[in-house]
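## retry 2 of 3
previous attempt timed out at serialization; input unchanged, resubmitting
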Amino acid sequence: MKRLIRNTVLFALVAIPAYLLLLCLLGDWGWVRTARTDMGNRGFLNSRIKDIRNYHNVDVLFLGSSHSYRTFDTRFYRSNNISCFNLGSSNQTPIQTLVLLKTYLDSINPRFIVFEVHPDIMKNDGIECAVDLLINAPINWESTKMAFHTGNMKVINTWLYSFYNQRIQHRLQSFKEDSVFEGAEYIPGGYVEIQTKEFERKHYSRHHLHIRPEQMDALKQCLSLIKEHNIPYLLVEVQDAYQLRSAFINHEWFENKMKALGPYRYKVLPLVDTIHFCNSNHLFIPGIELFNQDFVVDLKQALDTIPPRNVQP
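## retry succeeded, writing output
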C-alpha cells in the first residue's frame, strides 16, 4: 500500500506539471480541442470589456446574450439623450451575467438596468459563454469560481490556459481585435451591427420550454445584487421570428416565470420574418430600428421616474 501511495504521488508530481506545460504550449499553437485559446470572436467581448473604462455613471446598462448586444443599438439611445452601455455577450447565461455584474457593476454605475432574458438562454448550460468570458476578460476570483463550479474540462482547461496567457505572457491587454469581422461591426458602447442577412425558412417542431434550475438560481442572484445597489430593472424578452415563436407550446408559462421575478416586458410587434429578421432569433436592421423606436418610449418613462444617481468618481 505504501508503495502504491508513493508511486501515485510521484506520478502526480510528474504528470500534473507535464499536463500544464503541454496545455500551454499546444494552446499557443491552437492545437488543443479541449480548451478555447484564441482571443476575440464575432461577439466582440474582448473589445467590449476593454471599452468599459470609457463608460461610467450611465443611464442604462443592457445585459444578456446576443439578443441584447445585437438588438439594443447604443447609438440610437445616445441620440435620444440616454447614456448607455451594452454588456451582452454570445450565449450569455445568468451564471456569466452574475460574474460580470460582480466585476463591473460598481464601475459602470447605471441608473437603470435592462436585463434581456430568452427561453433558449435559460435552458442553456452556459459552457460557450464561460469559455468566451475566460479567454477574453481578465481572470478574477468570480470567473475562477464560475469556471471550476461547472466541472467541465473545456472550461477548466480554458481557465488554465487563460491564466498562463494573461498572468505569465501578458497577452490580453496588448491584444486588439478587428472592429469588423465576418460581416459584423463592433460599435463603441457594446452594440454589434450585423450587415449580412442569413435568414432562411425553417420548420421547428413544436416543443415545451424549460428552465435549468441553476440558471434560475443565478438569475435570482443577479436580481438580488441589482436590488442591493438600489437599481431599478426591467426584464425584456426580444421577440423571435414567427417560424420559431410559433413552435413554443408553453410560452405563457415562461412569461409567468419571468413576471414573478419583477417587471417584465414581452411585446410582439407586427414584423415580417424575411424582412425584419437576420435569422430565426435575431432581428435584422429594419426590425432593430422598429423595436428600438417602440422600446425607447417605455424606457424614457421608466427613467423619468428615477431620481439622478450619486455620481461616483
